[in-house]
Amino acid sequence: MRVLFAGGGTGGHLFPAIAIAEEIKRLDGASEIEFIGTEYGIEYRMKDTLEYKLHVIAMRGMPRKLSLGLLLFPFRLMKAVRQCKVLIQAFKPDIVVGTGGYVAGPPIMAAAKLGIPSVLQEQNSYPGLVTRKLAAKTTMLFLAYKRAEQYLPQGVRHKRLGNPIRRSVTTGNRADALRKFGLREDRKTILILGGSQGAHRLNEAVLRSMDKLDATVQILWQCGKRDYTEVAERLNKKDFVVSLFPFSNDMASVYAAADFAVARAGALTIAELTACGIPAILVPYPHATADHQTHNAKEVVDAGAAEMVADNELENHDIIARAMEILKSDKLSAMKQAAANIGRPDAAELIARDILALAKGEKLAN
Predict the structure, then answer these.
(1) By C-alpha distance, which of 80, 122, 96, 102 is closest to 8?
(2) Confidence (pLDDT) at 69
């Protein structure tokens, strides 16, 4: 099978594509996989480690306000669709897979024009613009959240299989992970996770409440590159067990060491936390498009696997104190079980199997 992927701009769109691609290669070792991206996204910065050939198209996101960029957008889109048609005709994929972001639009449009099967995988509970506008042009739409169904055009074929994560994410060893991060086995670990870039307001909230940390709890903290120096300097003045890092490529170890998390509510973060059975306090990023992180978080809260704190409430919320209360309460085990119940560690495999079936012209059971 030949499979052409398009998804990027942010890790939240690229990493699900990589997870699905890995499963396709595992299921069909002879498959050929290539990616489409832009020079503006994370996919271009990762091009040397991507492991798949990356084709770059001249596409940018659509500005949301009246501007020269908005006026030029239709012309850029048409150019990008033409580029994708040429790429598709040269590579001859059996199927095109989009995982969201502006880069996914032109390949899906080109595939529809050329009669090539295509699918979209939507990570969020409020679908992105590409999904809302182009889902009807695809052969199948894969969803993570039931809430997303209400925003789809009538009659769109879809399956809800969860968000794809890399198989390796759930394979960490706790003892090895604690040693790697210099943490102690006799303490519970709170993971602070602001996404790949970190989250400044979340970092500040944690720093304000660190004095509540006692000798039974330790912190594993991904603070982002931007805040790393400042956070490290402020922590040096305090006597806590804290392992601080800007970013880690070994998320399996990160999750293996964690008993509880305080995190943003990105779709990929939630998928990984729940797949690993880690309960959390979720703090949705307030400027996400259509406030989709709040919608994501609500589904996890409703399932009993998390609590939610609004970003504008952080100043009045002692977030570490609340995390410690949960860690020491009977509620922790129930939240862990709820997280495990909604986690979908097999999502990437299920989606990959369906993609291969569609590429062979088979019909999918609902």
Answers:
(1) 102
(2) 84
